[in-house]
Amino acid sequence: RMVMACAVKFADLKKLKIVGKGSTAAVWLCEDSASHEKFAMKQLPLSNNDGKRDLVLRELVTMYGLNTHASIVTCHAVFYSNNAFHIVMELMDGGSLLDALKRCFARDGTHAMPPSALAAVAVDMLRALTFLHDGLQVIHRDIKPGNILLSSSGQAKLGDFGIATQPGEVVVD
Question: d(Cα 134, Cα 159) in Å, to the nearest integer?
Fold first, then answer.
């Protein structure tokens, strides 16, 4: 098993339920049996497809280096086990902005969210993008409501760095 930085032990993580699923990964709600702290764990199976494997490796490298900004989801550890990488991240208990938009639609038939809430999300995302672009020369390339994660306290953080790149880097999708 490969381990990259951690106070969390892979053996102590118990998967509770799937909280998200994409084309290359599943995200699990997990609990650390030692500390009882909850995390999100993105499970990225390795693929024989070179393009998908490159996306997984790009996300690992990018996420691992971004623990220094308040508007980017914190990566606590990365493990390799059973032909898959596991990225252990902070749990954003409010789900995604897409989830929040769907909840608003279900409540009153519109996609309206309070302007003050949308403004707060925009400010957090602009801070994250400024840090990525100016500080790290990283371009996210996949800003969308599903990749903006929310906490119950109202904070928004940017996640999912699978197709992030640097200016001038050739990326084939």
Answer: 18
Whether 168 shows a pLDDT value over 60: the answer reads no
What is the b/e burial string over 42-79, where b = at least 16 CB atoms within 10 angstroms of the residue's CB? bbbeeeeeeebeebbebbbebbeebeebebbbbbbbbb
Is residue 54 annotated as a catalytic residue, yes or no? Answer: no
Of 133, 126, 118, nearest to 166 (Cα)? Answer: 133
| Tokens 């969308």 sit on residue | 144
Contacting residues for 160 by C-beta, under 8 A, at least 6 apart: 22, 59, 142, 146, 147
> Global pTM?
0.77
pLDDT in tens, 59-84: 666 666 566 678 888 888 888 888 88
CA–CA separation, 3 and 19 (whole Å)? 24
- Catalytically annotated residue among 32, 142, 160, 173: 142
